[in-house]
Amino acid sequence: MESPEKDAVTYSVHLPSDLEYIPPLRQFIAEVARVEGYSKKFCFRTEIIVDELVTNGILHGSQDVPSDIILSAKFESGQMHLSVQDQGGTRQNLENLKRAVYSPKPPSSDKKKGRGLVIVQMLSSELKIDLGENGNTQVHVIKTKDPEDSLGQREKLLYESDI
Amino acid sequence: MRISQQISGQDERIMLLHFEGDLNATDCDATSKIFQEIIDSQKFFIIALMENVTFVSSPFLGELMGCKLRLVERGGNMVIVGLNYDLRERLIQMGADKIFQFYPDTHTAYNHYHWEYTQTAQTVQITLPPKLRSVPAVRRFISGIARQKGYSSRDAFRIETIVDEIANNAIEHGDNSQPAINVELRIDRKKFELLVRNKTLMDKANQLQYVIDSNQEPTQGSDQRGRGLALVKLISNSINVSIDKAGTEVKITKMREDS
Asked: ipTM of the predicted structure?
């Protein structure tokens, strides 16, 4: 059985902007993180991050039908670099995104939306956005493996037996 | 009640109907008349936008059902978008979810329309490192997509088997220096296509071509390996291989069994 290596490995997925793809996609990235040697806790948190970023990309970024979302996950030296690219939303969408990323404030208790990126920030080490020249928006997340996130020997054996 | 109509900017065959306020029994006649006008204008697909609806009475729900029936009889449909949680729960209690599809936003409703009526295939491309350990996650991802798109568990399981076999072959028999494997799936209501591209050493690629063309397995007798492609041929509808300097591409088509 191959063991997870220290070299960088990258997975990327190019998919239609459709909410139905989110459950299998988030499970895929979480499983991939697990394969690359990250703990259950890390993977569960990754699943939450992917769910939030891709949902935002579909609802506020790639709004045309058809349009696409591109997700890439690079695992390198105990860090996961996650990037979600959409086709860019309206100016208002972008302003909301910038505000949520660079001056995050939890919304008041009567608001039903707006907590997702606050949670992503809590669960990741770094969060930033890039605006492409062609109008695309890329959200980047870096999540670092904590010492407690490392897959222990016992957990590793259990995971290998799962496969 | 306030009701306004607008032809969709995304697709002129779709009419958007914005409803506002309480939808009471007294509003049934006016609504029926609006639906008839829309049908007379040869538009049979309606997205009912209900973000700003505060109440739906049971007579009005009955009227909407009748309107939907008139559309379905002409090959069209009506879906409901943007209902708030409480109202949606109430309509579900009244059994409306058996008649109408509810969507959170218009984008999802358009996707549904394209999937059901224009039968446009959706494409997902996956790039993965050439490591065998990556394959289980990929096969589960792809079968998960098939399930999510309404394919049966049996179809999804068979798709998972196909992906597993072809992706494992691409890694196991591929050039050691290949940086990545590309997996592409094209899925629509009726069929599923899988394309796996890799860099294969020429002798292995020719062997693969031979196996697929000749209906034979390369190994004989007691060898316990090498039955995967025969299984894939058994559970798929077509399998093609193209080989050039850029690499090998295996394309598999599987028709949806319950379509």
From this structure: 0.85
